[in-house]
Design a protein that fits this description.
heterodimer, A: about 775 residues, alpha/beta, TIM Barrel, eight-stranded parallel sheet, B: about 220 residues, alpha+beta, NADH Oxidase, four-stranded antiparallel sheet, 7 helices
Chain lengths: ~775, ~220
């Protein structure tokens, strides 16, 4: 990089508004002007260079394949022309030309339907062109989704050798439109190797100041500010700040240590000229505080006190979990996550290693499913580097890796991944020689792990040490050694410590007691990251937080034990199973089912009690006596009963009997899916197996999956008139199968006449009608 | 004072006459929503002309085809284009809630619809406040009556909604985030007698169950 990013650098101002004033019509694609009006593009660049810009952004903001689709031009053509104009303009000035990369214009999963991998490919195409056509650097800007920014940054780093700036757009509340915090943004982008980070667009400089301050606290990187010229007037769209006012506010931003300055919407060369009059950059006090940290975009989690890592997403010794993995039942895994969060976990350990499961495909799949459904940082737990890389790649935020150990081969395989993806890492104090038997040996291995990580450029605060819990019933003297090592690493070295606590009590009666006693001792020694079953240990941790003077005035402890249990029947009331289901009491329904199984077998319970109870609710719903939320509460209570039945059957070595398999999907183009999900909930609780293909599903995929699974019934949902053709097409393709399934259709715009016209077998106006269709098909 | 958010959400749920427990659940969700997510809107007011008989906004480069727009904007000198959204945070909350509790998700969905409607009403007030001496017509939206749904991308482009609100349109013209409303409101020097309420204009008139359940406000 020929520029020193720690000294003042002036960027340019707005391109779009400049082009509009030179004749770009509303709706016209600005990037196509690189080809058709290159002299006008050059003129804008020249005006900024004359005003003092040292870096100009080529007119390539929207030059991605998606946004250019309607223009008939390729990204490479547009980027070549855009950089040609920029390079031409800056000849002899010593300024640099940046490839400008904006959002793709389609939202990524889970908000939209574009996959992370597709986004990466679209960005990679731009990055390769940018480098080939002479960009000096890459700027990724106006991002509001950290996941999209990650895809772009990875694409830049993996396909070019150019420096990369990343700026995101924040709201005055300190978050982006997708809820991303400044802290998460700064930590994640620094971890992924950005050269400078900051904020552009959406705010004026004054509103941007608090966001910039927050970013400073979370990164060592040089900072960028490219705000709008104030806020636009809603009536006429004019921006509020003059060039002089803009510069005056920018002086304050520069005072925060921001070295790279420019303007966004509403600014023109006068604004940049005004910036060149600012007093020279003064070194700002260093606000960055190293701190161990994990996050999702919306949940920043500094490890500044004890943070509980939930251990339950792990198949070891759990039959039901193993079955879920083998059947690709992600809903069950998500449920396990929710239960742990509700019990108090703040990080979830995710381990999906099991014979018959391909970890490198399952881990990223589970990471995506979890991140769509819960908002909590994850710790990826695997010994397989390929699985870890696949998981880290698609993880949105900053994750930790569990684990490396002192074996040089393991360190060599896994630490580079930790560095590349900006993760934290758990260093387990064992090595190729086996288990250490003293605190001293544990510390020696920990030192080796720390040194290897530091040598790769992994920050010290991202190295967490697990001093190895051994089973006390087998090696009784080891518990004290573990604790001694924890104390040294925590108190003397100042590193975070992790312990798989539950291991301590293996083989003893009343395990939970021993586990909790060990946990209390370990916390006293400075343990910050216990890996535990939160349902068993959170009370103990709450008490330790009081004793450790961490829970001020015991407020959280008091709140914890004053809290009322949610949605349960009044104490002392004696419900029947049917009543519990109908009134939506999940816990009671489960308990009553367990009791009922003492006298009835599983199938009898389902057929003679559960289904009639659900039918009663359904009939009440149809005559308007109960409403959709109650219908669904009943379905969920029924689900609790089914879980009991499934567990009971598994214990007897049998699998749950399904009443039939239904494949459901929202058709291509349709991205809202609550209706389909309602149908899924209700069908499942009538005992049908539902394979949910999700939303925006191509006809070919629905057809292929119908053939593969042999589902006898396929349910399709469409919400908009614009997506009805996709429904029709899907029906046509399904009917062409050698053994076509029966088809039911539904959704806001679907009518029974339409269903008939396109050849569907059933019109399901609501979830109840879907159950009726299933009954007709499966008997 | 009646709670607009609560009553409107109950109406969307078809549960206007709901039992106490349902009302309480909806009220709790509405309260949380009110405290954590604010509807956001952007609008711009354009001069309105006619082009071939159809309302035309020259500065936006937008023609509003169809009978509905012609009738509703008759006699208007200006028109406001509006987008109001609950943002992606609401979609995330819906996803989380669906994983946890479908019954709760259905309630949240209804509260979200009511809350974005409340945001549209705030926007109307803001527009009216900036235009003393003008009368606002009823608000109507692409996809309603014969105003084409395919105008959604134009709305987004004209109001720069991707940058300013984080709103995008899928190819099917569905808007993301889910609780997003685009609308046009005419401004006239005389009160506008035309109204849009009524099932005849509603795109869902053939499949809607609200009317037969007696919960549609339009009838």
């Amino acid at each position: 990089m020929p520029l020193d990013l720690h000294k003042r650098i002036l960027l340019d101002g707005a391109m779009g508004t400049m082009l509009q004033s030179s004749g770009l019509r509303p709706g016209e694609n600005a990037e196509v002007w690189n080809l058709t009006q290159p002299e006008r593009i050059e003129r804008v660049h020249r005006a900024y260079l004359a005003a003092g810009s040292q870096v100009i952004y080529a007119n390539t903001f929207g030059a991605n394949r998606l946004k250019l689709k309607k223009t008939g031009h390729t990204p490479d053509e547009i980027i070549a022309a855009g950089l040609r104009a920029a390079r031409h303009a800056l000849q002899g000035t010593g300024a640099l030309a940046a490839l400008d990369v904006g959002p793709l214009g389609a939202l990524l999963e889970p908000l939209g339907t574009l996959t992370f991998e597709e986004a990466y490919d679209l960005f990679a195409e731009m990055m390769v062109s940018g480098q080939r056509h002479g960009a000096d650097l890459i700027v990724i800007e106006t991002m509001t989704d950290l996941y999209e920014a990650k895809a772009a940054l990875l694409a830049a780093k993996e396909n070019t050798a150019l420096p990369v700036f990343v700026t995101m757009s924040f709201d005055a509340n300190g978050r982006t439109f997708t809820g991303c915090t400044a802290a998460s943004m700064a930590r994640v982008l620094e971890g992924l190797g950005a050269d400078a980070v900051g904020v552009n667009c959406s705010l004026g400089p004054r509103e941007m100041l608090p966001v910039i301050r927050e970013i400073r606290r979370h990164t060592r990187l040089p900072l960028i500010a490219k705000p709008n010229a104030g806020l636009p007037d809603p009536v006429d769209g004019r921006y509020s700040l003059s060039a002089a006012d803009f510069a005056a506010d920018m002086e304050k931003i520069a005072g925060e240590g921001v070295t790279i300055l420019g303007g966004c919407c509403g600014t023109d060369p006068d604004y940049i000229r005004a910036l060149s009059g600012l007093s020279p950059a003064a070194p700002a006090p260093d606000a960055f505080r190293p701190c161990s940290f994990l996050c999702t975009p919306t949940v920043p989690l500094p490890i500044d006190r004890v943070r509980v890592i939930g251990e339950r997403i792990n198949p070891t010794g759990k039959k039901r979990f193993q079955q879920a993995l083998l059947e690709n039942d992600l809903d069950y895994i998500v449920d396990t996550a929710i239960q742990q969060m509700d019990a108090g976990a703040e990080i979830l350990d995710v381990n999906v290693g099991y014979p018959g499961v391909e970890e490198k495909t399952m881990l990223p799949r589970v990471v995506k499913a979890l991140q769509a459904a819960v908002d909590i940082p994850l710790q990826l737990d695997s010994a397989d580097p390929e699985a870890l890389e696949a998981g880290l790649r698609v993880y949105n935020g900053k994750a930790s890796v569990n684990s490396v150990n002192g074996d040089p081969q393991v360190l060599g395989r896994i630490l580079p991944l930790v560095k590349k993806y900006g993760a934290a890492v758990v260093g387990l104090t064992l090595d190729e020689a086996g288990l250490p038997d003293t605190a001293q040996r544990r510390l020696a291995i920990a030192r080796r792990i720390l040194d290897s990580a530091l040598a790769l450029g992994i920050p010290r605060e991202d190295v967490w040490i697990d001093c190895l819990t051994l089973t006390v019933s087998a090696q009784q003297e080891q518990a004290a050694e573990t604790l001694k090592a924890v104390e040294t690493v925590s108190r003397q070295w100042g590193l975070q410590t992790v312990l798989g606590v539950s291991n301590i009590s293996f083989g003893l009666p009343n395990r939970s007691l021993v586990t909790r006693a060990f946990l209390a001792q370990a916390l006293r020694c400075g343990l910050t990251l216990p890996i535990v079953n939160p349902a068993e240990t959170m009370d103990m941790i709450a008490a330790c937080r009081v004793l450790g003077n961490e829970d001020e005035q015991s407020r959280r402890y008091v709140a914890r034990f004053a809290a009322l249990p949610e949605k349960t029947a009044a104490p002392g009331s004696r419900l029947t199973l049917e009543e519990a289901v109908q009134r939506g009491f999940r816990a009671e329904a489960g308990a009553l089912a367990r009791e009922a199984l003492k006298e009835q077998d599983e199938m009898e319970l389902v057929e003679c009690r559960l289904i009639p109870a659900l039918d009663q609710v359904g009939a009440d719903y149809e005559r308007g006596a109960v409403f959709l939320p109650q219908l669904l509460s009943a379905a969920q209570a029924a689900q609790a009963v089914f879980e009991v039945i499934r567990a009971s059957l598994l214990q007897k070595g049998r699998h749950a009997v399904s009443k039939g398999t239904v494949l459901i999907a929202t058709v291509q183009g349709d991205i809202h899916d609550i209706g389909k999900n309602i149908v899924k909930t209700v069908l499942e609780n009538y005992g049908y197996t539902v394979i949910d293909l999700g939303k925006d599903v191509k006809p070919e995929i629905i057809t292929r999956r119908a053939a593969e699974t042999g589902a006898s019934l396929v349910g399709l949902s469409a919400l908009m008139t614009t997506t009805l053709p996709a429904m029709e097409d899907t029906v046509r393709q399904l009917k062409a199968l050698p053994h076509p399934p029966r088809i039911m259709v539904g959704g806001a715009v679907v009518t029974s006449a339409y269903a008939e016209k396109i050849g569907a077998d059933f019109y399901a106006r609501d979830a109840r009608a879907a159950v009726e269709a299933a009954r007709q098909v499966f008997g | 004072m009646t709670d607009f958010l609560l009553e409107e959400a109950l109406r969307y749920l078809g549960a206007a006459r709901a039992d106490e427990a349902t009302r309480r659940a909806v009220a709790e969700t509405a309260q949380t929503l009110r405290g954590t997510i604010s509807p956001r809107f952007v609008y711009r007011v354009f001069d309105l002309e006619k082009k071939g008989g159809a309302p035309f906004l020259p500065d936006a480069g937008l023609t509003l085809p169809g009978k509905l727009a012609r009738r509703m904007l008759e006699g208007c000198g200006k028109a406001a284009l509006l987008i109001c959204t609950l943002g992606a945070g609401f979609d995330a909350r819906m996803r989380h809630m669906q994983a946890r509790d479908m019954a709760g998700a259905v309630i949240l969905d209804a509260c979200g619809s009511a809350w974005v409607e409340a945001g549209c009403r705030e926007a109307e007030k803001a527009i009216a406040a900036r235009h003393p001496g003008w009368f606002l017509t009823d608000r109507f939206s692409p996809g309603y009556g014969d105003l084409p749904l395919t105008l959604q991308p134009d709305w987004l482009r004209i109001l720069d909604a991707e940058k300013r609100l984080g709103v995008q349109a899928a190819e099917s013209c569905q808007l993301i985030p889910a609780k997003t409303v685009t609308a046009v409101i005419g401004l006239s020097r005389q009160p506008q007698p035309a109204r849009i309420r009524g099932c005849a204009y509603c795109a869902l008139k053939n499949t809607c169950t609200a009317r037969e359940r007696g919960i549609c406000r339009a009838t």
